[in-house]
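Researcher: Next sequence.
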Amino acid sequence: HYYITNNLRMRLTPDLIEEACQFVNPLKERELDLRAKKIQVIENLACTSDQFDCIDFSDNEIKRLDGFPLLSRLSMLLFNNNKICRMSEDLYASVPNIETLVLTGNLLEELSDLKGLEKLTKLKYLSLMRNPVTTKAKYRFYIIHHCPSVTVLDYKRVRLQERNTAKKMFGGKQAKKEEGKVKTFVPGEPVKKGSTPQDKEAIRAAIAKASSLDEIRRLEMMLSSGSIPGF
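Model: Next structure:
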């Protein structure tokens, strides 16, 4: 009986939300910590009364990025290590002011699975590392073209030359017809899948010394996801 009870999936109930840890993160933003609750479905977030800048759903079992009420204040969502394979194409209507979206370690496979990102016009920082879609040829250029507001993709700043290349690839009519059809795989950049205590301490020290909000946000994303490329 204990085994069965211990392995039940948790629902995201108003009580669970109310009892979850709330704090001010290194970006001086109000954050709600819903990590590792065995949550499968996003629901009942209206009871937060849109009081948070950041919600951390890392290390759960969420399969779909949907189910949000209108949360105008929300600017950061963390979904490290879930099972997300689909996202709502109307995501922008619920979380219109998202600037940081971390989807590291999920199950998004096709470029067409990313259409829900296209209308997030304030999205600046995006991580899709350790998703199958990142092995698709032209993946990075696809994101750069379709999400022009993104300035940092997978912890690497988007360069002007990349934007120009992406425009050539996806700007024409023929290019649009070919979108999502490419099946060729390319080797990805090696990335640490975990971080040591020394890594985390180094990032915290870097956050304390950072001279700009952009740098603090990039480092905070690394610290949260545990993916520390080249750090």
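Model: The CA atoms of residues 191 and 229 lie 5 Å apart. The two ends are 46 Å apart (CA to CA).
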